[in-house]
Task: structure prediction
Amino acid sequence: MQRERSEALFERARAVQPGGNTRHMVVFGPPMVYGSHGDGCRLTTVDGDVLIDWVNNFSTLIHGYGHRPTVEAVKAQAERMLCCILPSEAEVELSERICARWPGAEQIRFMNSGTEAVMVAVKGARALTGRSKVAKSEGGYHGQYDLVEASFLPTPDNWGPADRPASPAFGRGTPQSLLDQAVIFPFNDLEATLAILEAHAGELAAVVIDPIPARLGFVAADKAYLAGLREFCTKHGIVLIFDEVFCGRAGFTGAQGRLGVTPDMTALGKVIGGGLPIGAVAGTRAAMAVFDNLAGPLKVSHSGTFTANPMSMAAGIAALDALTPEAFAQLERQGDALRAGLQKHFEALGLTMRANGLGSMTSLQLFREPARDYRAFHSRSGPGYLQRIGRLHALMLQEGVLTATRGLMVGSTAMTDDDITETLERSGKALARFAQAERSAA
Ligand SMILES: Cc1ncc(COP(=O)(O)O)c(C=O)c1O
Result:
């Protein structure tokens, strides 16, 4: 693979960007590979390589590149206005569409990223309850807001006892006073979780959980577990927040519709913006009343220069309109075919690996038995995980299959069944070389 132009860009980037990038989550190499343009599920790099894109900008481009209705809607909106200080019809339309789908969405407010969505949901929950603590599951990723970064990617040296996890900082210098506001509970262990939450019940504003976390390889929380959280939060007047920024693509009615448990608030992002920057907090009328400036003195303020900007609204409307139940059925079928085909490769090559996930979300894992929580995922992945998964990523890239650095693959409606077959052929070659590398490393 020729990387001359990428190498030259990376050299220039290093002079003006620390590390030669402005987005740590997507870093591999060096050098980074630079994107040029896309068409359907294919992304062409500046070096002219054509990759089957299984990341879709971390899930946002659920219709792939150049989705005509989205492109036309964005063009038309750009002609009308990029943004203005008045609200637009488009924001009402997108609100109506989302509220018609997610069971827990009776009302909604927009922002510009998933990070902001989680942050605003937490602020709303605090204002609603008058309490400050926030509980989140161990290892969960909820964006860059430092409170919910507590216990993101903890390790055995800082994660504390299994039934009472610690809340280690992710970023150096995070105030201890902030970390003390985070209560960490073990994902999918109802008894231990309730014991922890019970001890803080009177201080908790919110319980935040991603019901199908990407970082745990898209293992879904058990319905009974989520129902237990639901019951507990209702009993204690705590706001239950689902972070569906990523897993909102789990189905026509979101992850909550698929899993059958309804939160008070939902943080949304990615697919609802059709590829443009977006975030949203949706919730029940009772929970969202906290943002109602017509209902008396304001309890919490929410604004933003680009909030509900009409470009993102227009793209979101077009993308959601094309996300029909039939489109989800296709994503589901192709996701199942991908996982089954990968699993066959693992077995044929003697690789102790697993293709986990559901619907359009797949995770390549370096172990066979499913992991139900963060600690199992971490310990089964093993000490050499980052190096090994990095090698697999590089080999897939060489075969023209773009995955996320930690082995995540998310599909798009732009994929045909032939694209799945081609992905499996190419992945088979990459996995054969990976198996060879694993044998020589052993
Ligand atoms: C579950 C989850 N929450 C929050 C975020 C943050 O969203 P954004 O990157 O738009 O700030 C992400 C991003 O990947 C996510 O996966």
In short: DSSP finds 14 helices and 14 strands in the chain. Residues 68-322 form a domain with the Aspartate Aminotransferase; domain 2 fold (CATH 3.40.640.10). The first strand starts at residue 35 and ends at 39.
